[in-house]
């Protein structure tokens, strides 16, 4: 192949780009992609097309205003034309950014077609013949992608039917982004901190922001909070060595979805397995200890205070959270299982039990604090006296406790309260019989702590 001067004529007019070249890819039908000579391509067509010569004069012209630049989101009319004497002509072209990815979008025209290979788009002739002009469009990126490079390759072929008499040409064209003010912003919801990011292209030294609600800023990347639902016209004016420019964008501030959570009650027994949670608007998320999906399990959560939340997001990206406190108690069950023949009370560190039925047997007896901690338990206690007193652990704190027992046929739980007694006038004291250790797991009737006569009375404060 003879040495040829690689020349291109590329005319840019407002909204139009004209490329005139002396080259063509002469595969009869659409040639393979990746032969423009761009970095990462398979090469150029000289691997197959060699040895020819083609005479012609090609010059390179640029956009009159702005020079060698591309604007954003514009559609340019491109025309590739070959001015040479040959029998067949073809071309291939791609445009990439600094990352090596396709920039913008080619839209094919008459006798041209696009191909995508990896992260690049190519446009080339569809059928190689004597036609040496192709018209198509190129849509520039919506915003700056930095310098863009067009890579072009082509073949001017003779009529021998052999690639040995063809001539291959390549060239490149670099376009720079225009200098322009611009910014982006994040979520736009009432009360949210909205971050405005300057993405202006060019060289700027000052920034003036107007958020449309009376507030302004001179920071390059400010933030702002809107307190009401509305549409605000946010403007940015920039100035510097690139001159000056400004832009205005309408920012819509959306309301929050107003999340609400509800439950049938705020206090539940620890034996309750599950209760339904209700949230509005629908399709939100419940969270908290003992929460699964749309149910709350007091038994799984355990005794104590629990915090349940409901969060919801809408289609605009705005979100809200509501919450409630739930109390899980170790319930006494007095209303459901009240046995009127047994009376219990606490005096000091002693538990007193009185039964109206002589000889009644408690098969299982246990005492718990509000945290569910077991203080003691025993089995097979025979209430063969009027009052049985059981000593508890030393220094028992004042407060509410729960006593649970079974008698073989029924189960009952009672609340008992230990209070500070300034003095007691209740019954004749007797020396305690063998002391009961709270560590023991069972007691027989003969091991009961203290027995009182039938005329004993329950405690009254002095």
Query: How many structural domains in the coordinates?
Result: 4
Instruction: Give the integer mean of the pLDDT values.
Output: 76
Report strand %: 35-45%
Which CATH architecture of the largest domain would you pick? Answer: Sandwich
The 3D shape can be described as elongated
DSSP helix fraction: under 10%
Q: Which structural category fits the helices and strands?
A: mainly beta
Would you report the number of β strands?
A: 35
List unreliable stretches of 5+ residues.
1-26, 55-65, 332-339, 421-462
CATH class descriptor of the largest domain: Mainly Beta
Count the DSSP helices: 1
In the CATH scheme, what's the topology name of the largest domain? Immunoglobulin-like
What is the rounded distance between the termini? 124 Å
For the biggest β-sheet, the strand order reads 3-11-10-5-8-7
Biggest β-sheet strands, sense, barrel: 6 strands, mixed
Radius of gyration from CA coordinates: 45 Å
């Amino acid at each position: 192949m003879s040495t040829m001067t690689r020349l291109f004529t590329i005319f840019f007019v407002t909204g139009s780009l004209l490329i005139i070249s002396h080259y063509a890819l002469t595969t009869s039908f659409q040639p393979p992609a990746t032969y423009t000579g761009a970095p990462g391509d398979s090469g150029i067509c000289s691997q197959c097309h060699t040895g020819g010569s083609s005479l012609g004069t090609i010059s390179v012209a640029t956009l009159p205003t702005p020079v060698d630049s591309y604007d954003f989101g514009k559609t340019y009319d491109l025309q590739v034309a070959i001015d040479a004497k040959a029998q067949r002509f073809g071309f291939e072209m791609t445009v990439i950014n600094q990352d090596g990815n396709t920039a913008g979008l080619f839209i094919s025209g008459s006798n041209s077609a696009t191909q995508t290979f990896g992260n690049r788009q190519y446009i080339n002739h569809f059928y190689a013949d004597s036609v040496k002009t192709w018209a198509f469009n190129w849509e520039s990126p919506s915003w700056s992608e930095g310098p863009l490079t067009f890579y072009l390759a082509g073949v001017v072929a003779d009529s021998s039917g052999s690639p040995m008499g063809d001539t291959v040409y390549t060239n490149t064209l670099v376009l720079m982004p225009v200098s322009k003010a611009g910014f982006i912003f994040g979520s736009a919801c009432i009360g949210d901190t909205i971050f405005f990011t300057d993405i202006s292209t060019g060289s700027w030294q000052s920034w003036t922001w107007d958020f449309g609600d009376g507030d302004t800023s001179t920071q390059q990347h400010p933030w702002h909070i809107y307190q009401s639902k509305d549409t605000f016209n946010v403007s940015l004016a920039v100035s510097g060595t690139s001159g000056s420019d400004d832009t205005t964008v309408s920012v819509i501030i959306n309301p929050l979805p107003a999340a609400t959570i509800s439950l049938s009650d705020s206090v539940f027994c620890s034996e309750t397995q599950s209760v339904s949670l209700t949230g509005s608007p629908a399709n939100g998320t419940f969270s908290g200890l003992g929460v699964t999906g749309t149910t709350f399990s007091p038994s799984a959560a355990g005794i104590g205070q629990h915090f349940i939340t409901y969060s919801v997001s809408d289609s605009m990206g705005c979100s809200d959270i509501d919450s409630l406190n739930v109390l899980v108690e170790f319930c006494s069950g007095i209303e459901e299982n009240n046995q009127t023949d047994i009376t219990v009370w606490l005096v000091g560190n002693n538990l007193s039990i009185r039964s109206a039925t002589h000889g009644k047997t408690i098969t299982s007896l246990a005492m718990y604090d509000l945290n569910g901690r077991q203080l003691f338990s025993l089995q097979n206690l025979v209430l063969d006296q009027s009052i049985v007193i059981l000593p508890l652990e030393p220094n028992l704190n004042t407060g509410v406790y729960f006593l649970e027992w079974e008698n073989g046929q029924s189960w009952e739980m009672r609340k008992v309260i230990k209070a500070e007694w300034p003095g007691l006038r209740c019954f004749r004291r007797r020396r305690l019989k063998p002391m009961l250790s709270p560590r023991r797991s069972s007691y027989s009737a003969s091991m009961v702590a203290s027995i009182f006569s039938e005329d004993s009375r329950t405690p009254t404060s002095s």
